[in-house]
Amino acid sequence: MSPRNVRKTPHSAAAIEALAASISAKRLLQKPVVEPERKADGGLTGTWLVTIGEGRRLALKLLARRGQISKSHLVPCLIDTEFDPQEISLDENITRSAMHPADQFEAFLDLHLRLGWGAEDIGARFGVSAQLVRQRLRLACISPLLLAAYREEDLTLEQLTAFAVSEDHARQEQVYSSLSYNRSPSFIRQALTAEKAPADDRRAIFIGLEAYEAAGGAVLRDLFCEDRGGWLEDVALLDQLACEKLSAQAEAARQAEGWTWCEAHLDYPSGHGLSRIYPRQIARTPQALEAMALLGDEREALIAPWSQAQDLPPEAAERVAQIDAELAAFGEDYAYDEADIARGGLMAVLTWDGGVRFERGLIRPEDARQTHGQGEEDGETSETASGEAGDQVRADALPERLVAELTAYRTASLRDALGQDPQSALVCLLHALVLATFYASGGASCLDISCSSRALGAEAPAIEEAPAGRRVAERHEGWARQTPPSHHEAWDFVLGLDGDSRMALLAHCVGLCVDAVEDRRSQPAAIGHAQALAHRLALDLRGDWRPDARSYLGRVTKARILEAVAEAAGEAEALRLAGLKKSEMVEAAEALLSESDWLPSLLRAAPVASTDDDLAACRAA
User: Fold this and answer.
1) Tens of pLDDT along 218-272?
2) Which helix (H) or strand (E) holds 244?
3) Are 275 and 363 a contacting pair, CB within 8 Å?
4) Is 362 found in the same domain as 248?
5) Which CATH number do you get for residue 73?
6) Which domain holds residue 19?
């Protein structure tokens, strides 16, 4: 290269590759300009210096190294000795005008349509990747109205690429005409895909992208950014396929298990008005129980010596597998009563991650004559249970007013006795809670105590699938399996529990009564008590709630978003996001907060408070 060539910054490897590809495909289209090299005394050295065309010289050297041209390949050049070499080098770089990108897009499209060249062919002839050619072809197919706006600099290249997510010119122009202050690429993509479902939608995960495409569904893909698989354009078809597959799985489960009816729902139907029955423990013969106990003891004896080892010895592992198979042959420990199956049904519900959850043992109102697995109707059983006492009252034929007075004295004595017996008071309280929690008919308790469990689905539709919601549901089902079929047996059931089980059941029943939702119906005193309770329990929601666009960021102001980012990632990150549009800020903040344990103030963990602090908080509430 001539020392008077004004381009001092080296050519990039990509630029040399592109020039080499062009020369290889079309020969050298522009002659380099050269000048003779001279000695100190002005004589010629026989070497020529490149004043204009250093990139072409390097590309030719690359082709020679690769054997695509010979090292003695003759290169036509233009010899200039009339003008100053530095001036013409500068002129060549200043006066030439680069092609507008839109012209390049359309030129690539012309080669594709007129000559039939694919992206790989075009890329090879210009030294660029096939993916880059596909992107430029997609941009060339954008609405001419938008390409004109790009040429007039009313749209940036980033905004134009956002419009390329859709091939519908009418929709592109509609979104373009509706743009106001928010013209960010992310907002444009969101507007163009608002009526489509992303490929990671739970319905798409459930049916599979292959099944959707096999049914004729189109998938929209973005060539310019990570689209996580694209967008499914036919949402109605997606819903249809998901409902059909979910209904088929529900029907298969119904037939396999013998239920009377089944339903399929993409979302859990809160407030469905159905009651619920649960499987009961299988009654086993003494011989079966003894055999299972022996097998369990043998299994434990085999495993115990190797508790610290990573694997069991082959002989022990083989015997443990045999024991497991023998225990499995006894069947499940819990099962639904055949009469309950004959009148009950199940629901198949699509979960948040594209799986299926089956809700079994559901009883419709018209089938609820026998509830909670009872063998006889509640009214008949209640009459039988109270028959002896009722006969005595009728036989004595006492006046109603006297009966009330006498039983008032009995009530006072019961209150006094129960007030001096904390354990019996606990049993009575738990019995009342068990009746209200597990029995649709409610049953009867002599305690004047009522409790209710607020359905949270109206405020948070996805709460059934949230971690805390699933834990509560699983614990509830575990206790429901153990409660007796009839509420008349509930008293004996509660009495028969050991102390730890009794306290665990009490905690579950009381937990279901908590209502800490803040809305127009909330009482300030109740919310104050909820705060004191949170302190007492050192409540920590970091594993039960995550901040994202749906749950928080898309529903608060930009100031709140920046406040969250500053707390989670530092003031510097908040300042970096401060100038972004709302949609861009939400997207960036979501990525930052996903790596932290940040929670809004309403959900933050509270330190354990002392008993005195708890009492003070409750009094203040």
Assistant:
1) 998 888 877 778 889 898 899 999 999 999 999 999 999 999 999 999 888 877 7
2) helix 235-257
3) yes
4) yes
5) 3.90.1530.30
6) 13-94
